[in-house]
Specification:
The complex is a heterodimer.
Chain A (H helix, E strand, L loop, with lengths): L7 H36 L15 H11 L10 H17 L10 E3 L2 E3 L9 H22 L3 H32 L4 H10 L4 H4 L1 H14 L11 H4 L9 H26 L15 H27 L7 H30 L1
Antiparallel strand pairs in A: 1-2
Chain B lengths: L2 H22 L3 H21 L3 H26 L11 H24 L18 H9 L3 H23 L1
Helix pairs in contact in B: 1-2, 2-3
Classes of the chains: A mainly alpha, B mainly alpha.
Chain lengths: 347, 166
């Protein structure tokens, strides 16, 4: 049988990695919801969730249990299969991104060298783009299948917002790709570890554009037009109840974590701890320090997301579109031209 | 059968079934969603040919952008099954006839092309679909057609803006 001539240890190793990363992302997302409520509470000068467990630490578990045990309602006029597919797709698309993020250097266990990355593919960033562009289908399908005017309007908003900001995001990224010359996230991070500066020093404008677009892609306030509750009641997930609603809300947090990880890897050195020589400690410990560094960078980015959400009010829809098309895209084009000119001048 | 062949046949069956579902679905939204699956399976074929860049660009451009616009337009126009107009039997017959003759034409073309005769598919090898060789080919050997097609896109964009302003 030639079918079974795989490297089984490799498959098992990858499956374990996938399980660890997916469950870790879910766990972090669970506590990001808690963090969001605490940060909101601090910014608004109130205590926030504090009853369940010490400092309210068991609150996310209580919320999760509540969502799972609530009654599940599928509207009678809804397209049943697409209604179920919507939240599943949103969740899948947000989790798929974690496959190409380099979480650290390799560790050595049982005589094997295990890369702390699920797949180092040579088109890493484009893969992320493909998955991000799939994410909008979850919202669109869910919003349409609900057979509700508000949900449909919200789905249309989500689609146009996603397309508008994906363009600027891609253009901002081209500047970075011109300086690094590679699409593989691993190579980009390694170049930053080996080089003097992180990419944000070379691409400050590109990073700013990328950050704003990432916020828009994650549907975070001030870009949460698809679920603007004072205009659309509750947006695309209005008809959803129980854990399906939970999946939509959860996917948003996982998106936030993944985009933080991507930004940390591309612009802020990934698992690179500054002013620290990794060769002075054992390789496994160095790898673990790298993972910890990346996680700290992710948490800082998530905090930034939350800080902005609870500080800046929501845009109007025309403001959102004119910001995307008349500010972000020309700026990204300018950044691309500038980067190209500097690279040419240096040659 | 090797793993590669199993993947090839599974993907091909997936493409054909999804493509048939695009045609037989009554609801236009379902058709669009099946078409997205077709693009995904074709990207799978690209990966089998070691053309990762083409595969991912196919997903980003077709499945990610163009189909979102399709879905957008269909949702906006709110096309429902009820108000879909009944097609005359003769129209259906002519449609089948013209589509079938186009298929025959394509098959005959592929069969007669000299460059394709006696060629084997480069599975897992060959690097024209990777980003470096593709970029080099586009900007050296094919730079004039490449630039002309980008001018075409630019003019299409300008045209869309002008129509939108009216």
């Amino acid at each position: 049988m030639t079918i079974l001539s795989f490297d089984w240890a490799f498959i098992i190793e990858k499956l374990i990695m996938i399980a660890i990363i997916v469950f870790a992302s879910l766990g972090i997302a669970l506590y990001t919801t808690f963090g969001e409520r605490k940060v909101a509470a601090i910014l608004q000068d109130r205590p926030g969730p504090s009853r369940a467990g010490p400092f309210g630490l068991l609150q996310p578990l209580a919320d999760g249990l509540k969502l799972i045990t609530k009654e599940e309602i599928i509207p009678s006029h809804a397209d049943k299969w697409l209604f179920i597919l919507g939240p599943g797709l949103a969740m899948t698309a947000s989790l798929l991104t974690c496959a190409v993020i380099p979480w650290g250097t390799a560790i050595h266990v049982f005589g094997r060298t295990v890369e702390l990355q699920i797949a180092d593919i040579n088109i890493g960033i484009l893969y992320v783009f493909a998955v991000v562009s799939m994410g909008v289908y979850g919202i669109m399908i869910g919003g349409w299948a609900s057979n509700n005017k508000f949900s449909l309007l919200s789905a249309l908003r989500a689609a146009s917002q996603a397309i508008s900001y994906e363009l600027a995001m891609g253009l901002a990224l081209i500047g970075l790709l011109m300086t690094t010359g590679s699409l593989s996230l691993k190579t980009i991070v390694e170049a930053q570890v080996a080089g003097n500066w992180w990419n944000v020093v070379y691409q400050p404008l590109g990073f700013l554009i990328f950050f704003i677009c990432a916020m828009a892609e994650c549907n975070r306030t001030p870009f949460d037009l698809p679920e603007a509750e004072n205009e659309l009641n509750f947006g695309y997930h209005q008809e959803y109840s129980s854990m399906k609603l939970g999946f939509y809300l959860f996917a948003e947090y996982i998106n936030m974590i993944m985009s933080s990880a991507i930004m940390a890897s591309m612009y802020f050195g990934g698992y690179d701890l500054p002013f620290f020589d990794e060769s002075t400690v054992a390789p496994n410990i160095a790898a673990m320090i790298g993972v910890g560094t990346l996680l700290i960078k992710i948490v800082l980015f998530i905090f930034l997301f939350m800080w902005i959400r609870w500080t800046i009010p929501r845009f109007r829809y025309d403001q959102l579109m004119s910001l995307g098309w008349k500010t972000m895209i020309p700026l990204a084009l300018f950044n691309m031209l500038l980067t190209g000119a500097i690279i040419l001048a240096k040659l | 059968m090797s793993t590669l062949e199993i993947l090839f046949y599974a993907l091909s069956a997936f493409v054909i079934i999804s493509a048939i579902m695009v045609l037989v679905s009554k609801n236009p939204i379902h058709s669009v969603l099946w078409l997205i699956l077709v693009f995904f399976a074709i990207s799978g074929h690209y990966i089998l040919l070691n053309a990762q860049f083409l595969a991912i660009v196919n997903i980003i451009v077709y499945a990610g952008a163009i189909m979102v616009l399709f879905l957008f337009v269909i949702m906006l126009m709110n096309v429902k099954q009820e108000n879909e107009f009944k097609k005359h039997l003769l129209v259906k017959f002519i449609g089948v006839l013209s589509g079938g003759s186009f298929l025959v034409l394509l098959v005959a073309l592929v069969k007669q092309t000299v460059q394709l005769q006696g060629q084997k598919v480069l599975l897992k090898e060959g690097n024209i679909g990777l980003i470096h060789p593709l970029g080099k080919a586009l900007f050296t050997d094919y730079v004039v057609p490449f630039e002309i097609s980008s001018v075409l896109f630019l003019s299409a964009m300008v045209g869309a803006v002008i129509i939108g302003k009216k």
